[in-house]
Amino acid sequence: MSFLNRKSVISRRKPLAAAAVIALGLIITGGSYAAATTAAKATASTAYTQAQVDEGRKLFLANCATCHGSNGQGTKNAPTLIGVGAAAVDFQVSSGRMPAQASGPQIAAKDPAEFTDSQIAAMAAYVATLGPGPSVPTADMVSANGDATRGGELFRTNCAMCHNAAGAGGALTQGKYAPALTQTSQTEMYEAMQTGPQNMPVFNDANLTPKDKKDIITYLVYLQQHPSPAGLDLENLGPVAEGLFVWIFVLGGIIAITVWLGAKSN
Amino acid sequence: MASKQESQGGEHEYSAGLAVVSADKIADPGLEPHRVRMTDKSEKHEKRAASQVAGWFLISIAGSISAIVFYFLFPINADLNTVRTNTFFFGVSAALGMLAIGFGAVHWAKTLMPDAEVAEARHQTRGSEEVRARAIEIVNLANQESGFSRRKLIRRSLYGALALFPLPGLVLFKDLTTNNNPSGTLRHTMWARGVRLVTDPLGTPIKAADVTLGSVFHVIPEGLNELPEDQKLEQKAKAAVLLVRLDESEIKSEKEKAWGHQGIVAYSKICTHVGCPVALYEQHTHHLLCPCHQSTFDITDDCKVIFGPASHALPQLQISVDNQGYLVANHDFFEPVGPSFWERSVNE
Question: Residue B82 above 90 pLDDT?
Answer without folding.
Answer: no
